Amino acid sequence: MKVMVIVKATQDSETGIMPSEQLLTEMGQYNEELARAGILLAGEGLHPSSKGVRVHFSGTDRTVIKGPFTPAQELVAGYWLWQVNSIEDAIAWVKRCPNPMPGESEIEIRPIFEAEDFGEALTPELREQEDRIRAQVETQQQE
């Protein structure tokens, strides 16, 4: 199963306080462990929400809202995409993670939908389209 592992933001991350060299070193070692275990698919840190925008949808109207956004603990500071055998495996790996923030922090684990989760709504035509898109993305990433 694939999961998104979400590092929640804190007041420090939202004010732009960067991680220390020690934390970057520890996270680098942790990411190497994830890669060696064949779990890591992707992962990145995000700039504070003050550098981001949201697009609000209301029918056919679109409104751009500039950050910062609040509350900080509801925001995302970074993420990983992992391929794991179970949610329990993901939990075990997260427990091994260095604390991503000075002080208290929180990491959320969310399963990613698989094609089978959509049932009959994912018709053979839509599944074929999804497969084509994935193949195109993979090809572009290899270039």
Short summary of the structure?
This protein has 143 residues and is an alpha+beta fold. It is built from four helices and six strands; from the N terminus they run βααββββαβα.
Characterization of the model:
This protein has 143 residues and is of the alpha+beta class. The protein has helices at residues 11-14, 21-36, 87-95, 124-142; strands spanning 2-8, 40-45, 53-58, 61-66, 76-83, 107-111.
Write the SSE topology.
Elements lengths: L1 E7 L2 H4 L6 H16 L3 E6 L7 E6 L2 E6 L9 E8 L3 H9 L11 E5 L12 H19 L1
Antiparallel strand pairs: 1-5, 1-6, 2-5, 3-4
- Outline the biggest β-sheet: 4 strands, antiparallel
The number of helical segments is 4
Number of beta strands: 6
- Main-sheet strand order equals 2-5-1-6
| Oligomeric nature of the chains | single chain
Poorly predicted spans: none
For the record, give the distance between the C-alpha atoms at the N and C termini, rounded to a whole number.
27 Å
Mean pLDDT: 95
Helix content: 25-40%
β-sheet strand percentage: 25-35%
The radius of gyration is: 18 Å
Shape call: globular
Structural class: alpha+beta
Reading the helices and strands in chain order gives: EHHEEEEHEH
